[in-house]
Amino acid sequence: MKKFSLVIADQKESNKSILKALLKDYPNFEAIALAFDWQEAISISQTMQADVLFINNNLLPNSNALETLKAECPEFTQIVYLGDSEAQAIFAFEYDFADFILFPCDATRFEKCIQKLTNRLSHQPQLPLNNIQSLIEQLQEQEKTLIVKDAGKIKIIDCNDIIWIGGAGNYVELYLKNENRPVLHRETLSAMENKLTNLGFIRIHRSILVRKKYISELKPTDSGDYQVTLRNGHQLNLSRRYKSAMTGII
User: Which of 14, 35, 147, 227 has its CB 3.0 to 4.6 Å from that of 41, i.e. a possible disulfide?
Assistant: First the structure.
């Protein structure tokens, strides 16, 4: 069963909880991120290549924001517009959103929404990234190369350029040489650990992998852990649970 990624953007935590609860009956729709304002929702949809964006009217400053939302969200991202008034349904129609839901909604109405999404997602053209899946697989087989999908593009990253990796659920943040901002990659930290152990990466914390050769200093803390300083001056924490990774040094 094909899985679809989904972003929830809503001002109210109670609304987000309701949506997440409704989604439990549809395992092929996976909520990958929560957004707290409409511009963040666009950014996350672009970066994570979300299949679906649920966005509530309560996040939008005015109706003009809908035009920006439609223009800047990826073409392949289906938008479900949530509102508290039936009058707002006209906007969903004008911008060809996948659906409008008068919120909060019940399970029966939500099922109809999922059916609409499934129909649209099943019949839309394949993304260019999917069309060259065979190329991606070939590149991934090359030693020391990591393929990252980023905002409609494919980045080919030399693993020798990775200094450390931070875990964030089903995603990791890759901190690279000569890059000021981390690169987001959809893979778990455990999977990255299995893939990169033979390249000198070690786990120093439940959410941190670091390339051992980039460590320049270890400093014990009062709690029994260690402060790790990297060659670029960045500081991380080494949990006592992972001291064994530093056998021969500590």
Answer: 35
